[in-house]
């Protein structure tokens, strides 16, 4: 069940990328997907995914997402910092780990790129309700990634993962944005 849903979401991302993506971009070559399951000799699942990173994708909020190597339960996504945020111009890597009982349990999503944000800690963990108690099997990876992009634009300091950054965000917004821009230049632009 989980693998079938994950493959469907990958195909959906390819066919109809989020509005923050340029439509029609070939994110993955799913024609290379091969599922082998023989009664005589079970060989398991084989997957090959080709990645495409055209330059014009850099203007999108969500550049690319998909499996790492041949593991369909482990994806990597690239989120471009939203232009109306202190993360503008940054390229942020995010890992997505699907549990075996997906979509009944949420994926584990974390930033690999360091981010100065009240809802993202130093380990890359993200405080986002839909990744916890508000998860629903009706949600998709596409919706999760769009929610993360939205969180970059509009942090939630009232439900922080890093209270010190949340306090700065509430009491000294200019300093918060300046520090976030500095981290973006240091960790997400080079």
TrEMBL record:
This is UBC core domain-containing protein. PANTHER family: UBIQUITIN-CONJUGATING ENZYME E2. Keywords: ATP-binding, Nucleotide-binding, Transferase, Ubl conjugation pathway. The keyword rRNA processing does not apply. The keyword ATP-binding applies. One of its GO terms (molecular function) is transferase activity. CDD domains: UBCc_UBE2D. It holds the Pfam family UQ_con. Residues 1-189 form the UBC core domain. The active site is at 127 (glycyl thioester intermediate). Transmembrane segments: none annotated. Gene3D superfamilies: Ubiquitin Conjugating Enzyme (3.10.110.10). Belongs to the ubiquitin-conjugating enzyme family.
């Amino acid at each position: 069940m989980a693998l079938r849903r994950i493959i469907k979401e990958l195909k959906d991302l390819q066919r109809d990328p989020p509005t923050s993506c340029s439509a029609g971009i070939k994110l993955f070559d799913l024609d290379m997907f091969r599922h082998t399951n023989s009664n005589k000799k079970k060989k398991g699942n084989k997957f090959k995914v080709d990645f495409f990173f055209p330059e014009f994708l850099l203007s999108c909020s969500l550049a690319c997402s998909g499996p790492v190597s041949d593991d369909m339960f482990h994806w990597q996504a690239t989120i471009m910092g939203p232009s109306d945020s202190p993360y503008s111009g940054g390229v942020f890597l995010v890992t997505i780990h699907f549990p075996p009982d997906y979509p009944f349990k949420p994926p584990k999503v974390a930033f690999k790129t360091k981010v100065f944000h009240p809802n993202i800690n130093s380990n890359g963990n993200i405080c986002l309700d839909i990744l916890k108690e508000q998860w629903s099997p009706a949600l998709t990876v596409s919706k999760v990634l769009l929610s993360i992009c939205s969180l970059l634009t509009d942090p939630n300091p009232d439900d922080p993962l890093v209270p010190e950054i949340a306090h700065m965000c509430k009491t000294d917004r200019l300093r918060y944005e300046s520090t976030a821009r500095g981290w973006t230049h240091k960790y997400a632009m080079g």
